[in-house]
Amino acid sequence: MTAAEPETPRTASSRAKDHSPWNWLLFIPIVVPLIPVFFNADSPRLFGFPRFYWLQLVWILLGVATTTLVYQMTKKRGDH
């Protein structure tokens, strides 16, 4: 393929064939916030905020970190 030729987009069926075990990590930010024992207390407080509120921010960071890790481990090397 030359530089003048446009790159053909990947179809949905080619993207759906990614059976990497790294994809299982994406369940962590979905399942962990659903465990009630994490929210079942008022303490410890962080900067005056009860556990429920600051844990919401932790779940966001967990989701971003997990998604970034899975993306980096599953992206195709050499594809431009």
Detailed description of the structure:
- The chain has 80 residues and is an all-alpha fold.
- It has a domain at 39-74.
- 40% of the residues lie in helices and 0% in strands.
- The chain is built from three helices and no strands.
- The chain has helices at 12-15, 28-31, 51-74.
- The longest helix has 24 residues, at 51-74.
- The chain is elongated and about 60 Å long.
- The model has no long low-confidence stretch (mean pLDDT 81).
Supply the helix-strand structural class: mainly alpha
Number of helices: 3
Outline? elongated
Mind summarizing the main beta sheet?
Answer: none
Q: Report the radius of gyration as a whole number of Å.
A: 19 Å
What order do the helices and strands follow?
HHH
Q: Count all strands and give the number.
A: 0
Helix content: 40-55%
Give the overall pLDDT as a whole number: 81
Distance between the termini: 12 Å
> Per DSSP, what share of the residues sits in E-state strands of 2 or more residues?
under 5%
The poorly predicted ranges are none
List keywords for this structure.
3 helices, 80 residues, elongated, mainly alpha
Which helices and strands, and how do they pair?
Blueprint lengths: L11 H4 L12 H4 L19 H24 L6
